[in-house]
Specification:
By secondary structure, the chain is mostly helical. It has five helices and no strands. The longest helix has 32 residues, at 7-38. The protein binds zinc ion (ZN). Zinc ion binds next to helix 4.
Length: 139
Amino acid sequence: MSAIADLDVFRKALEQQRRELSDGIKASQAEAQAIISASADGHPVDFNHPADMIEGDADFAKFLELGRRQKAELLLVDQAIERLRAGDFGSCDKCGDDIAPARLRAVPYAKYCLNCQERADQAAKATARPESRERRTNF
Ligand SMILES: [Zn+2]
């Protein structure tokens, strides 16, 4: 349980973020789809495909990458909303300490306290390759 009093503020911020991300993903998909439809073979967009599916199309790659990032962020937002429901919003997922309110205001979907986040970032850097491959298949 966390000692955060203004849960409603975070709930609203997260729900707002969720809507924006959903719209953003739809827009990225539509943009990527439009580029693909305009191409010779007109495949439907498959985000699991590498961006070089259309050789040298920088716009397609851009929207594909944007969509991936939006999806990854949406997942974090969903998890945060889940933690709100479960009543453990604001506690670090790793060490259980309270996440600093200033950090939550900046990043409402923060999962870890600053210490654990830094450690997780370092670990992610060390295993950057397998992790980026995993993100790609999860999209
Ligand atoms: Zn922690």
